[in-house]
Amino acid sequence: MADDNKGPGALDESTENAALGDALAAEHAAVWGYGVVGAALGGDARQQAAAAESAHRDVRDQVSALLAGRKADVVDAKGAYALPFPVLSAVDAAALGAVLEDGVAAAWVRVLDQAAERSTRELAVGVLSAAEVRAVGWRAAAGRTPITLAFPGLPGQ
Question: What is the model's pTM?
Answer without folding.
Answer: 0.91
